[in-house]
C-alpha cells in the first residue's frame, strides 16, 4: 500500500511541477501599466455614436479674423513737372519712416505722381486719417509724400498744401477743388480738367 502510494505521488508530483512549477522572477514583477494622464480625458473612438465626456477645461475660443477694411485708392495730385521740384526732402521724417514711426496707415491709399514717374503715397497733416505719427511730428497744412515705404530706403517729402492746390485732383471731379473748402482756390486750374492717369 505504501509503495503504491509513493508511486502514485511520484507520478502526480512531477506533473504538478511541470504544470505549475515555482514562480519565476519575471512572474513576481508587476507589469507596468501604460502611461496615463489623469487630467487628460479619453477621446472618443472613430464610429463612436455617443456624446463625449464633459471637458472641464475646454480650449479657449478663437475669434475669426476680421475681413479686410474696404479702401478705394485714388489719385490726389498729378503734377505737370517732376514731383521732386514741388516738394522738399525731410531727413528727420525719412529716418522716422524707416523706423516705422512716421508712415502711412495704408500705403498708396492716396497717390501722387509727376510725368512718367512712379506714384508716391500721400498723407495729410491736417486730415491725418492715413498717417501713423506716434511722435506728433505732423504739421497742419503740410502734405507728406512717401517713396518706397516699408523699406530701408523710405524717403519722405513735404510741401505746403496751399501751394500744391493747383495740382490737386479732388473727389468732386477736377483740379483745384479742396474738399474741406478751407484753402483759397486762387490760381487753380479749372475743375473741368480731365481725370489724370497714372503712368
Question: What report would you give on this structure?
Answer:
With 199 residues, the protein is α+β, with helices and mostly antiparallel strands. Helices cover 15% and strands 19% of the residues. It is built from three helices and ten strands. It has helices spanning 2-19, 25-28, 91-98, and strands spanning 74-78, 88-90, 103-104, 110-113, 120-124, 131-132, 142-147, 155-160, 169-170, 174-175. The strands form three sheets. It has a six-stranded mixed beta sheet with strand order 1-4-5-7-8-2, covered by helices on one side. It has a two-stranded antiparallel sheet with strand order 3-6. Strands 9-10 form a two-stranded antiparallel ribbon. β4 and β5 form a beta hairpin. The protein is elongated. 17% of the residues are buried. Mean pLDDT is 73; it is low at 177-193.
What are the key terms here?
199 residues, alpha+beta, six-stranded mixed sheet, 3 helices, 10 strands
Instruction: Give Rg in angstroms.
Output: 41 Å
Per DSSP, the total helix count is 3
**Broad structural category:** alpha+beta
Tally of strands: 10
Short characterization:
With 199 residues, this protein is of the alpha+beta class.
Could you give the topology of this structure?
Elements: H1 2-19, H2 25-28, E1 74-78, E2 88-90, H3 91-98, E3 103-104, E4 110-113, E5 120-124, E6 131-132, E7 142-147, E8 155-160, E9 169-170, E10 174-175
Parallel strand pairs: 1-4
Antiparallel strand pairs: 2-8, 3-6, 4-5, 5-7, 7-8, 9-10
